Amino acid sequence: MGDKNHLLYVVTIHAILALLHFIVSDAVETLARAGGRQERWQLLRNNTGVVTMHMALTHENTVIIFDQTEAGPSQYRLHQRYNGRRCSTRSRADLKDGACYAHSVEYYIHGNNLRPLRFVSDPWCSSGSFLSNGTLLQVGGHGRGSQRIRYFRPCRDHLCNCSNRRGHCRVIDGMLRIYYCLNMIELLLLVEGMLIVTNLYLNYIPRTDLLIFLFCMTLMTRMVAETTSTLSFIFLLMVTSSSSPTVTPSFFNYQRNRVVKTFPRIPGGGFRNYPSSGSLVILPLDHQDRFQKVEVMVCGGATSGAYEAAARGRFLPALSSCGRMVITGNNHIWKMENMPRPRTMHDMLILPTGHILIINGARRGCAGWQNAATPLLRPYLYNPKKSRGQRFTVLKATRIARMYHSSALLLPDGRVLVAGGNPYNTYTFSNVAYPTELRLQAFVPDYMDRQFNDLRPGNVTVEYEGHSSGVAYGTAFTIHFWLGRRPSKDVEYSVYAPPFTTHSISMNQRLLKLRCRHTTRDGGGLMSAVLEAPSSPNVAPPGYYLLTVVNNGIPSLSQWVRFIPA
Ligand SMILES: *[C@@H]1O[C@H](CO)[C@@H](O)[C@H](O)[C@H]1NC(C)=O
Ligand SMILES: *[C@@H]1O[C@H](CO)[C@@H](O)[C@H](O)[C@H]1NC(C)=O
Ligand SMILES: *[C@@H]1O[C@H](CO)[C@@H](O)[C@H](O)[C@H]1NC(C)=O
Ligand SMILES: *[C@@H]1O[C@H](CO)[C@@H](O)[C@H](O)[C@H]1NC(C)=O
């Protein structure tokens, strides 16, 4: 064979192999679908007005959504600017003025409606977390916004008025004492990691000394991320020295100011952190080991060189591998397995059942403007308790691509809110492969199906002692719920910390399975269960959690419960 013929031959064989692979892997997905599951997709709104780059669920059952403020006109026009000056629909300048548009909204789950929120400075690519009183702390952003720390105090529908006369609710904007705070997307992830091993209360974050410390950590993390892009993942990460060219995932004890231990790097090549954008969760924590076993799971990401290739218009296949590692104890080994497909820019959420939902994202490329292709429309469900090879189920496809700057969030009613997507720096709707996406959806897992309603615990209420505003650590507390039939042997009680979600990372997300001391049931089906609160804030930082009763795999609607120091 001549060289040319040989080349043709090789190319043809490759094309056939690729086609075969495609057919076989599609068959695998179809097989995995068998079994009559009833999950659904709902279109909630055609237009949220702003891109859902960041979102967070408040304990008043609203969702805070925000984009960058510098994207120019959004699809949510305001009648006036925040300084009160009118926005004319006749003036061309006003039509193009970003100040005549909202860049953040608050979404009311029950009413399925929105109101605009005001951001004074740009929160693009920022981090956030809830304080113990339910106030959202949101830090950093872009430009002037990178030096900002912001609070948002959620309030019940129509019960509170916005702080601004004109009815635009304002996110309270404060100034960080320290300068040079770049984008602080990693900030709370570090806190998260430290929370596992140290004694840090989220309340302490605003303290300047800690901020400076965290800031330094963040800066180091970023510098290394940008120069070598080798961070296996961030929330366990500590850079042993800022000049070190390599990064080892480690635990850092901020009180003793030193690294406590280091972990092996995750195998599988490629990279996991932004812009490779794998995702990660802490698998459910369990009272049975007194919450002492902490296991993390990292899935997907981008292959080495994906960012550079995307700049040349080539979108390399993402990573399909997932790694699980127990980070407590002394035996740290990554256990690897593969998702049904390669995936990047996905979100990983812990469902009330303790299963992990992998949703959104793409099959090729990485994060960044127009850096990815081939959206993955099917979520995966991962059951950590099953044996390897049996853990993934491929779920029903949506029709809406969720690419860069999309996000997902668990709602108190067990659905998953899915929103956003914008691979462009402005709102772009035509002549592009993946236009700005403003449709708001809910993914409704099969456990919500009506056929399970007779198993579903109803009307969950939490009893607080006396005038207390919460449940103290390590104490017993009582909940009530209704169950028309005898409970199955397998009733679980879980509490879930609502995350702040952006860029494939659900900061501070965790689920704890609580111990039940005993239950009673009256003739009418009213159940009472005495549960044990987590033993300390090291296990569950103080604040609001979603409490769910799961009967034989079917969850109740969740109720908020607040854990407070005694
Ligand atoms: C979205 O728009 C489509 C087409 O105009 C319409 O049929 C549908 O009812 C709308 N859905 C919602 C939730 O507004
Ligand atoms: C919650 O705590 C923060 C920080 O201490 C404070 O600024 C805010 O006003 C508090 N919110 C409420 C509702 O008490
Ligand atoms: C909110 O504003 C309305 C109308 O301005 C007023 O009647 C109501 O009392 C206010 N509510 C609160 C809680 O301040
Ligand atoms: C449960 O709550 C619903 C409203 O959410 C109410 O209609 C129903 O009567 C309650 N059931 C019981 C047994 O309390």
Helix content: 10-25%
Kindly report the average pLDDT value. 79
The fraction of residues in strands falls at 25-35%
What is the total domain count? 2
Distance between the termini: 81 Å
Give the helix/strand class: alpha+beta
- For this structure, what is the CATH homologous superfamily of the largest domain? Galactose oxidase/kelch, beta-propeller
Q: Report on the biggest sheet.
A: 7 strands, mixed
**How many β strands by DSSP?**
38
Q: What's the shape?
A: globular
Ligand names: 2-acetamido-2-deoxy-beta-D-glucopyranose
User: What is the radius of gyration computed over CA atoms, rounded to a whole number of angstroms?
Assistant: 24 Å
Based on the coordinates given, report the CATH architecture of the largest domain: 7 Propeller
Q: What is the CATH class of the largest domain? A: Mainly Beta
Protein name: Galactose oxidase-like Early set domain-containing protein
Transmembrane segments: 6-24
Keywords: Membrane, Signal, Transmembrane, Transmembrane helix
Pfam families: Glyoxal_oxid_N, GO-like_E_set
